[in-house]
Amino acid sequence: MHHNDAGGFTKPGPRQYPHQWNWDSAVIALGLSHFDLPRALTEIRSLIGGQWRDGMIPHVVYHDRPSDYFPDPAFWQTENSLHAPAVATSGITQPPLLATVIRQIHARTPIPEFVREVYPALLRWHRWLLTARDADGSGLVCIIHPWESGTDDSPRWLNPLADITPTDVPVFKRGDTTHVAAAERPHQADYERFIHLIDVFRRNRYEPAALLARSPFLAQDVLLNSILYRAGEDLRALAVELDEPTAEMDGWLERMRVNFDARFWDEDRGLYLDYNMRRAAPIPVNTALTFMPLFAGLPDQQKAARLINEHWLNPIEYAPDSRVRYWITTTSQTEPTWDARRYWRGPVWIILNWLLADGLRRYGFDDLADALRRDSLELMARSGFREYYDPRDGAGCGSTDFSWSAALALEFLIDLE
Ligand code: GLC
Fold it and tell me: What DSSP letter does each residue of 275-289 carry, written as one string?
């Protein structure tokens, strides 16, 4: 983390990701808080410094650093939006993990003044998500780009992407295959669609209502909504401490709770599935994000038991077997798109292991959470702080010296004490 410190923020990786990423920074702040609390708070302040006027906290804050990263600020053209801040940022958001992290840091070392300082920004971000991104009044939030899910090339998004015909794709040169092997990165056809979407957004000047109406990609994501629900509870707890009103948040949480299972739960398969708003249909792809509602505490015991018994422990899908040695592959091995080394198509990600370990503990599956921790620590000890790992042999993939892997190593180790 020190190595990737760029002054007021930490780069996710030294070369591949030279700016500040939203949910990476939240996790990095958690890691930093163990040995340098003031620096952790600076990390959070610089992320919030990229907040848009309408409340969105963007997925990347560039901080005026020149780099070979693509898309660069010139490509996003956010200056044409009425809502963009003075600092250069991307024009989309990422999973809102920040309120949860701040509550966790505060629970360990009370920082009441800091909480009071950042609370309005957190509230404005959640309010933006629950208004600007609520397309059907359900309290469930939509994403308009796979990158907003944090799981950029997950096979969950292949169906909605296949419906998109990229037209007049602006000329661009990928930067992501400069530092990492192309076989570990998204396919070119997916990448063209990613870029086409940004082009649609910039032509609509990032006006939220126009994007909801016109984005060719519109999905309700199980991962983002699970994190938002949990973060909403954490934000509410902070509001209570600050003696701030909670009625608005109670309304959000209630609507999400009422609509979550109706929208995402597939009773026949015993899985939570993402929803393609453009087709008004569930996306029938089995990935490890199906377990994320455990992190939100949303499934009842019976559904949690089905998730675990029918899927988590099933060697054909997720449990280590002759093919896969480490918990947990990002995509079920039954999916034809399963790919052990390609990004979100199969590799183990430490962030996912950490979120899911927390979810498992909420439901009393402590042994399974312990196994996630053991495997995460073993992978990092064996292959270093990599971006992701081949679940078969534990080989490190993607970026080297990856910040949130290091931050979460600390979390897992402290958890052991
Ligand atoms: C990739 C990941 C995303 C992460 C970013 C920076 O885009 O998919 O989740 O935030 O890298 O690490």
Answer: EETTTTEE----BGG
Contact of 343 with 153, CB cutoff 8 Å: yes
What pLDDT does 212 receive?
A: 97
pLDDT exceeds 90 at position 98: yes
Q: Which of 152, 153, 375, 401 is catalytic?
A: 152
Q: Is the pLDDT of residue 184 over 90?
A: no
Closest CA to 73 of 49, 93, 57, 90: 90
Please tell me the pTM assigned to this model. Answer: 0.98
Reply yes or no on whether 244 is catalytic.
no
| Count of other CB atoms within 10 angstroms of residue 211 | 22
Distance 154 CA to ligand 1 centre (A): 12
Helices (H), 110-221: 112-132, 158-162, 188-203, 208-214
Crossing angle of helices 98-108/112-132, nearest 10°? 160
Ligand 1 centroid, distance to 214 Cα (angstroms)? 25
Residues 6+ apart with CB under 8 A from 300: none
Question: In terms of DSSP bridges, do strands 142-143 and 281-282 run parallel, antiparallel, or are they unpaired?
Answer: unpaired
